[in-house]
Amino acid sequence: MPQTMMTARTALLLLFLLMPACAAAQEVFPITEAARAAGLPAEAVGIFVQDPGSGRVVLAAGADQALNPASAMKLVTTYASLEMLGPAFTWKTEAWADGAMQGNALKGNLVLKGSGDPKLTLENLWLLLRGIRARGLKQIRGDLVLDRRAFQQIDVDPARFDGDPTRAYNVGPDALLVNYKALRVQLVPDLGARSVKVLLDPPLTNVQVENRITIADGPCGDWRTLLAPQLQDDGTTARMSFRGTFSASCGERSFYLSVLRHAPYTGSLFRHLWEESGGTLDGTVRDGSAGPDARLLFTWESPTLAELVRDINKFSNNVMARQLFLSLGADTFGMPGTPEKSARAIQQWLDRKGLAFPELVLENGSGLSRTERISARHLGELLTAAYRSPVMPELMASLPLVAVDGTMRKRLREAGVAGQAHIKSGSLDGVKSIAGYVLDAQGRRMVVVCIVNHPGANAAAGALQDTLLRWVYQRP
């Protein structure tokens, strides 16, 4: 659709949608004709704007429809977690010696016990292993045992959502999640040799690379599509084959892939870092738990929840959100954490706050779902409740700042609302959403929610939502 036509249709839509609401009547706006002009039926759009200070509803259009909010659902998970677990909550990953120590050797197994840490990155795992080595352990003459009982172990099909199992955002949760179960693939052109190196970080012994990339001249273009990577993955070992051309003008490029199951990935990464530090591991990697006579060697403590929700919301990290969601269930109802326990914990929390959201459907708490649902009104009322909460500063600071950072950094750069709104965005095929807070030109903070569910949402809804943010910022 031509940009001029899209702009005209969006303007027509906003002419009807963005009329000031009568505070007493809180009228429902006649959006049907205007939405049809933009190719969006009225039942596909939910808009809600509220003054969180007074509670006055400024705008409500289609606000009571149960819609898929995509990643805006992370606001439910992160706000609930900040109140239920507390901003200072942390996760602990423990290393247990299950056997006798003889000098620097363990005649038995080393047990890693996870609690669901959403950010046990490669760097943090290295620090954990460094802490173990500092306590005198060098040789492990038994097995590496992974205690993953904190979460219910579910075989997540990474291809179920969108048919792309290698995408890092499709990684399922795990009580001992390490480095988001991701591999960084680096492409390094060597102009002298007219070749392209393919480097893996971390370099795992059970992941092999076949490199048949040829270097080319000309513009960089859609370099990743031209590579045509192919994957053979049985869950324990993987082979990645790269074919196609890569332009020298691209320079160094990198992207992330997910391969292997959780246990083989964690075991291979542990062995790599452990041997790199001078240690040895004689046995295999397996699931299990520590025996009654095991002793605690070292505990790694994660950053606080207040720090982690920033990563979840600023960059819309689905994997971390799913870890946090399951942690709610495990903390409220005991291990193992399950999606059902977590949904029940959030529902009880809402009940205690006097918030009735009968249409709310929670599957994994990240928004990477085709079944999750909430209305624009209730998501807005949740944000109003958060605005009055002691954890409001932590939640608001975790949201992307329009035109500045996170997933909103490229939007509305030339508008007055740039730098004045903390907005969580969401996007799936057929879904586009925004939700958060706008500091308007008069210095008033406003809650804003707009959810669009329609096959044309990805093309048409962005302009509508940007215009809505401008209007909320500029309105008299």
Written overview of the protein:
- The chain is of the alpha/beta class and 476 residues long.
- It has three domains: 254 residues, Beta-lactamase (3-Layer(aba) Sandwich); 108 residues, D-Ala-D-Ala carboxypeptidase C, peptidase S13 (D-tyrosyl-trna(Tyr) Deacylase, Chain: A); 75 residues, no CATH class.
- Strands 3, 4, 5, 6, 13, 14 and 15 form a seven-stranded mixed β-sheet that branches. A five-stranded antiparallel β-sheet has the order 2-1-18-17-16, with helices on both faces. A three-stranded antiparallel β-sheet has the order 8-7-12, with no helix packed on it.
- A hairpin with a 4-residue loop joins strand 7 and strand 8.
- It is globular and about 75 Å long.
- It starts with a helix and ends with a helix.
- The N terminus is likely disordered.
Key words describing this protein structure:
476 residues; alpha/beta; Beta-lactamase; D-tyrosyl-trna(Tyr) Deacylase, Chain: A; 7-stranded mixed sheet; 25% strand; globular
